[in-house]
Amino acid sequence: xxxxxxxxxxxxxxxxxxxxxxxxxxxxxxxxxxxxxxxxxxxxxxxxxxxxxxxxxxxxxxxxxxxxxxxxxxxxxxxxxxxxxxxxxxxxxxxxxxxxxxxxxxxxxxxxxxxxxxxxxxxxxxxxxxxxxxxxxxxxxxxxxxxxxxxxxxxxxxxxxxxxxxxxxxxxxxxxxxxxxxxxxxxxxxxxxxxxxxxxxxxxxxxxxxxxxxxxxxxxxxxxxxxxxxxxxxxxxxxxxxxxxxxxxxxxxxxxxxxxxxxxxxxxxxxxxxxxxxxxxxxxxxxxxxxxxxxxxxxxxxxxxxxxxxxxxxxxxxxxxxxxxxxxxxxxxxxxxxxxxxxxxxxxxxxxxxxxxxxxxxxxxxxxxxxxxxxxxxxxxxxxxxxxxxxxxxxxxxxxxxxxxxxxxxxxxxxxxxxxxxxxxxxxxxxxxx
Length: 434
Known about the structure:
44% of the residues lie in helices and 17% in strands. By secondary structure, it is α/β, with parallel strands linked by helices. It has a domain at 82-102 and 218-403: Rossmann fold, CATH 3.40.50.
């Protein structure tokens, strides 16, 4: 899989190296030079298992770098869980992506990246330090995926007081090779500090840091797999509309990759909360990143989405190219909560706030457009409602039942290191500990 930097097409890498680099040396994000045509395979993949699809797609992408046996090990070590499609209304289905170990869609990217790194580190005889910023689910998925991995240390930055209590427990109770840094600031501060670390050549010469955020191409490849799997579970001839609750836009970028490999998608909808930078861009043609604002769907509280740089590369920075395959919508806090209340009172369905954003945006889209009976709208349901107990309880006055993976955390002790939101504090921690 030949890659180049979004900031310099002459800065090249391959997948096997890029997953350890995280960012390109010039600060850009790795992007594929070309897209393999998998349209024939995808057309005939109906009824296949998730892992069988994953093995085929991943091997097609990196077959010049490794063997089928290696890919099979990576896939089977990463995935002992799979997505599920569930109808939630007469017109809308959700793709349940919270069946993994931390009950969030980030488990797919994190588990695959951890499995890939462990497989490829065997050839390198070196130690890697994973550095990741999280607004909620990324950090917990990364922490769990890399727990106990040999030769891999993990440092996770999260904004103090701005993740749910359960998310914080997932970040701060593992210990071992996982370190949680509680930053006195916002997620954007955390992300900026991480980017500064990767851009500091002196630090990188002393500490072998790499990323597990969605800036890492190793996170996006596996996230594309469940789009293809969703298609495989439908009848031939269905045209899919995918609505993607979006914050840092890695999940949506992965879906766009799948489309470029041959997945037939009628429409993508980028559904955001009041952090509506990309929907505004799609309307006005002007991209104006700014400080994030806090909402009930906190994992999407991102004011400067890092993967937008990949999307600009994909669409040649031309807003009309974006609009050909993607529309944007943003959902207010009030409409998010009302959607949660309506689905519970009318259908007994408990939604997490991020899925509620996606469902409301899909409903509005369907109300404003006419489609035939073969159109199949799917909302990516990104997290179990139990991860957002406080928001759910406040909205519907009912506490969601926690799966064992979450309930077992409640009695565990939080262990974190509090730091300020200046890069110098992160650098000091890294140099002192690694």
